[in-house]
Amino acid sequence: xxxxxxxxxxxxxxxxxxxxxxxxxxxxxxxxxxxxxxxxxxxxxxxxxxxxxxxxxxxxxxxxxxxxxxxxxxxxxxxxxxxxxxxxxxxxxxxxxxxxxxxxxxxxxxxxxxxxxxxxxxxxxxxxxxxxxxxxxxxxxxxxxxxxxxxxxxxxxxxxxxxxxxxxxxxxxxxxxxx
Length: 179
Description:
Helices cover 0% and strands 53% of the residues. The protein folds into two domains: 10-111, Jelly Rolls, CATH 2.60.120.10; 115-178, Jelly Rolls. The strands form four sheets. A six-stranded antiparallel beta sheet has the order 1-2-3-10-5-8, with no helix packed on it. The protein has a four-stranded antiparallel beta sheet with strand order 4-9-6-7, with no helix packed on it. A hairpin with a 2-residue loop joins strand 6 and strand 7. It is built from no helices and 18 strands. It has strands at 14-15, 22-28, 38-45, 49-50, 57-65, 69-73, 76-80, 85-89, 94-98, 103-111, 115-122, 126-128, 135-139, 145-146, 149-150, 156-159, 164-168, 171-178. It is globular. With 179 residues, the protein is mostly beta strands.
């Protein structure tokens, strides 16, 4: 099976819902009106930025760096180092302050009444897709491969339910399971 690779460098940035930052959408199930039940994207955070509110949405985030990011979630301070994962609700009041310029984070957003989702950083030789929904892989190094195909950092692939692939390198894997 040959998986199509989404090249991060080719993605066009678009404004956050609140207009305070930019993101690049990797994959989603959006319709023509941009209504979606799941979305996976990479956001750039410059300076202290409040996150957009997404009521009814579960959010998973992976710090991609460079450096760490300080989050304040409903008044509680949390620091994420590179590859750290955190989950919170779309209703939560969240602000982020990166410690270095050029900070990126990966966001996995799913409607809570439609999807369960998990996000983790892996370094494993194989990965199997979630049988009840999509699985997305995002390369974390420039030396990674997916089924022996070289990937640049942040390139991604969407695995269809029930498929498997071989990996070399570190990846974020986001699994979505329809409820």
